[in-house]
Amino acid sequence: MKALWALLRREIRAHQLAFGAYFALTLLLDAFAVLTAPENPERFGLTMLPLVGLLFFAPLLLVHAFASERRNHQVYLLFALPVARWQVALIRVIANLVHTAGILVVGLGGAAWAYQRGLASEVQVSGSLALLLALGILAYLVLLYGLVLGMETLRSVPLRGRSLWGAASALLGLYLALRGAAHGLYRVLPALSLDFTFVDATGRVFQKTANLQPLEFAVVFGLLWGALALWGFHRFAEV
Amino acid sequence: MGLRFDPTRPIYLQIMEWIKRQAVRGVLRPGDRVPSVRDLARELQVNPNTVARAYRELEREGFLFTLRGQGTFITRDAARLARERQRLLEQAVQHFLEGLRELQPSPEEAERLMEILRRQLHDDR
Amino acid sequence: MTIVEVQDLWKRYPGSTALRGVSLQVPRGVVLGVLGENGSGKSTLLRILAGVSRPSRGTVRVLGRDPRDAAVRRHIAFLPEVTPYDPWMRVRGLLDFLQPFYPGWDSRKARILLEALQLDPDRRIGELSKGQQARLKLATAFAWPSDLVLLDEPLGGIDPPSRHRILHTLFSEFRYGEQAIVLSTHLVQEVEEFLETVVFLHHGEVTLQGSADDLRARTGKSLLELFEEVVA
Questions:
Q1: B3 in a domain, yes or no?
Q2: pLDDT by residue (tens digit) across C104-163?
Q3: Does A touch B (3+ CB pairs < 8 Å)?
Q4: Largest CB tally within 10 Å, which of A20, A155, A234, C214?
C-alpha cells in the first residue's frame, strides 16, 4: 500500500509541469474575464473556456504521460516494479484526475466569482446541477481515458485484420447491450431533469432543460469501457 | 594479488595450480589454513563459485581437507606434498623441453645448455 | 533450486524475430553471461525475464512463476540498458522511492553503495554523466536481497579502467550470497572471470551454452575467442 502511494506521488510529480502550464493558462483567462467582464459581459464566457479546454486537455495530458514515459524510458522501471499493470494504469489515471481537479477548482471558482460580481442578476436552477456536472465530466473523462488506455495497449499489440474486425464487432455488441442497460437504468432511477434559467446583465433570459438519460448511458458505458481498457492494458501492454 | 588468468583455460584449474604452487614453495605450509572462498575470490578477483569448485577438486584429490566450523587446510601429508612438488618440477621441465625441442639443439649445444642450467640453479640458491 | 527456467522461448515483432527457441536454466547463486552482439536478442531476453515484455511463444518461469505476475517481481532486480529514472529526481529520492517496493531493502547498505560507487546523494539524476547513471543503476540492484539480478549491458558508459574494478567490487563485496545474476554484454573480455555459465546468442538463437570452465577445457579457447567465432 505504501508502495502504491509512493507511485501515485511520483506520477503526480512527474507530470506537474504540463499541468502547471494549463493551470496558469486557466488562471490568466479567469483573471482576464473576471476583471474586464463588468464592462463586457460577453467576456464572462472566457471563464468557461478553461473548463471546456479541460475536456480536451485531461486526456491529452494522459497521452503525454504515456508517451513521455516511453520516450524517457521510465516505462522500463514502471513495468519492472512489483506492481500490477492495471494498478500502474489506474494510478496514472488518478494522478491525471488530481491535476484535472485542480484546474476544475480554478475554473469553477472563477465562474462562481464572476456570478457573484453581478454578471447574472438571477439564476434559477432546479434539479441537481452538481450531479449533472459531475456525471457529465466523469462520463466524458472515463470514455476518453479508456480511449487513451486502449491506444497505449494497441502499441503493444499490433492488430491484424481479423482481430481488428473481431474487436470492432465486440465493441458494437457491447455498445448496443449497454444502450439497453442504460435505458433500464433510467427507468429505475428517478428521472432527473435540470431546468436552468439564466438572466444576464442586459436582461436577456436563457432557459435550458437538460435530460439526464444520455448521461446515465455515458457513465455506464464509460465505466465499462474504462474497465475493459484497463484489463486490456494489464494483459497486453509491454515495452 | 594480481594473478593473471589465462582465459583459454578453466579458471578453477588455474586456481588449483596456484594453491598447489603456494604449498610446494612453502608459502603455505602443511596444515596451514587456506583463505575462505570469499576472501580468495576477492583477492584473485574471480567468481566465488569458481574458487569453491577449485577447493572441492583439491579436496577430492586429497590436497586440502576441511574441518567443520574451522576452515579448509593444506594437507599435512608430507608424502602427498612431495609428490606434488615432484609433479610440478617435472611439469616445468616438460615446458622447458618443449621450448627447446622446437629449436632442435645439437648435442654440443645441449651440453652447454645443461651447464648453464646447473650453474643458474646453483647461483639461485 | 532453479531460479530461472526458460523453455523454447520465441519473441516476434512485426517484421522481425528477436528470439528463436531459446532454452536455458539458471540455478540459485550462479552468474550467467548472455553473450552476443548488438541485435542478437540479449536485451529482449532480459526484458522477458523481468516481466517487462511478453513472450510470443514458450514458457518463462522465475522462482517457478511467470514474471508477468507482479508478486514475483518483488524478487527480481532489473537494470535495463537505458536509464529508466526521472531526471528531476535526486539520487537519494530514487532510493527512497524504491524502498517500499522491495522486501528487505537496506537503506544503510544503499548509502554505502552510493559511496563505494562515488555517487552524490543530492545530485539530480538528470545531471549525472552516463557513467554515473550506470553506477547508480548498479547501486539500486544490490541494495536488497533479490533472488535474481538482471543486468543488461551494465558496463555501458563506465570508463574501461573502472569496469573490472566495479564489477569485482559488486560481485564480491555487495552481492548477496545466493543471488543469481544474469548479465548480458558484448564486452566479453571484461567479464571473463566473473561468469560461471554462458549462453551465446546470435540472431536470436542459442549457438553455444554451458559452464565457462568446461567450455574452456573442451575447446582450449577463451570466452572472447568463442564469442568472436560465434559472431563471425
A1: no
A2: 999 999 999 999 999 999 999 999 999 999 999 999 999 999 999 999 999 988 998 899
A3: no
A4: A234
Domains and CATH numbers, chain C: 2-85+146-159+168-231 (3.40.50.300)
Look up the pTM and report it: 0.84
* Shortest alpha-carbon distance between residue C143 and chain A (Å): 15
Residue A76 sits at the chain C interface (C-beta within 8 Å):
yes
Disruptive mutation site among B18, B50, B51 for chain C (greatest number of C CBs within 10 Å) = B50
Contact between C83 and A6 using a beta-carbon 8 Å cutoff: no
- Partner-chain contact C213 B7, CB within 8 Å: no
Q: Are residues B52 and B66 in the same domain?
A: yes
Examine the domain organization and report whether B61 and B98 are in the same domain.
Answer: no
Q: Is residue B83 part of a domain?
A: yes
**Residue A124, pLDDT score:** 52
Torsion of CA A73, A75, A79, A84, to 10 degrees: 170
Residue B36: φ, ψ to 5°: -65, 160
Task: Mark which of B76, B97, B114 sits at the end of a domain.
Answer: B76
Spatial CA neighbour of C3 closest among C138, C141, C137, C146:
C146
Helix (H) or strand (E) holding B65: strand B64-67
**What is the band of C6 on the pLDDT scale with cuts at 50, 70, 90?**
very high
d(CA C140, CA A77): 12
A239, C52: Cβ pair inside 8 Å?
A: yes
Count of domains observed in chain B: 2
Mean pLDDT of the region B7-21: 93
Q: Give the chains touching C; criterion: ≥3 Cβ pairs < 8 Å.
A: A, B
Residue B28 lies in a domain: yes
Assign C57 to helix, strand or coil: strand
Q: Could you report the per-residue pLDDT of A193-231, keeping only the tens digit for each?
A: 556 666 666 667 777 665 656 666 677 777 777 888 888
Q: Which of residues 78-107 of C touch A (CB under 8 A)?
A: 78, 80, 82-88, 97, 100-102
> Could you list the residue range(s) of the whole structural domain that residue B88 is in?
79-124
Q: How far apart are CA A124 and CA A198, in angstroms?
A: 7
Q: How far is CA A65 from CA A15, A22, A23, C101, in A?
A: 7, 15, 17, 22
Q: Indicate the number of domains in chain A.
A: 1
Both B95 and B69 in a single domain?
A: no
